[in-house]
Amino acid sequence: MDRLAIVVPCYNEEEVFPISEPVLRGTIDDLVSKGKVSEDSYVLFVNDGSKDRTWDLIEEAHKEHPKRVFGVKLAGNVGHQFALTAGLLTAKDMCDITVSIDADLQDDVSVIEEMVDKFHEGCDIVYGVRSDRTSDTFFKRTTAQGFYKVMSGMGVKTVYNHADFRLMSRRAVEAFSQYQETNLFLRGIVPLLGYKTDCVYYQRAQRAAGESKYPLSKMLALAFNGISSFSVKPISMILGAGVVMIIIALGVAIYSIVQYCLNHVEPGWTSLMLSIWFIGGMQLIAIGLIGQYIGKVYIEVKHRPRYNIEKVLSDDSEEK
Description:
By secondary structure, the chain is α/β, with parallel strands linked by helices. It is built from ten helices and eight strands.
């Protein structure tokens, strides 16, 4: 029988934890009763440097259900992608299947059973995919659709309407552990693993409690990180824009010479200044974009640890 670990990154989830913990624990109990996962399956909560009582609640839940609720406490706040990675790599050697899900219960836990069924049918990766976005606001729906279109246009392989709700087998997580980059974008890395995959579809619910930890600024940062970590097309686009600007400049030069020869030249201080500002702005954008890539290389070559684990609560010891 396969051992399942549900990995849940948490950041300031004091309000939603008392709701999500029994639901996720109950999901495992249900799968165990149906004989689909082993009795020693568990939920692994990863505390990402929360400033509220999230870790205290995880410890209390572990004391009450020591065989079902585990915990990982990171030494500081490292962000959702790193926290999720810490959970996956911690669970890797203690389970056969991992399912990653956010603590807010917006993802439908009922489809975890379908994910497990597809794993038993031979899939190493099963994506949880939203069937529609009717529950989103117009702005969020439009920006999300634009995000996937831009990622596709940039050549980044992602699964449409999929976030980080997915099942991964042990060998898939083992393969993922070989990816050592600091600029993590799991939605782009997982499709690169190459194992057999499938999808399950669900309606996304409203957040059970608390506030979203992904405001617009973080969503934009994630989008840029995904593009810059997996595609060099923006640099190619700058080159293309430079070629177009040279062609336009040649056309303007020819036009100016003709006008000069015909004595049609007028003082053009305004147009000259606009041209200088436009080209100067283009140069600054180009330099800034290239600088972002150089900055990522600078961060990668340091080979700093992506996170530090302060405590681990599991079934073989109270604290590690």
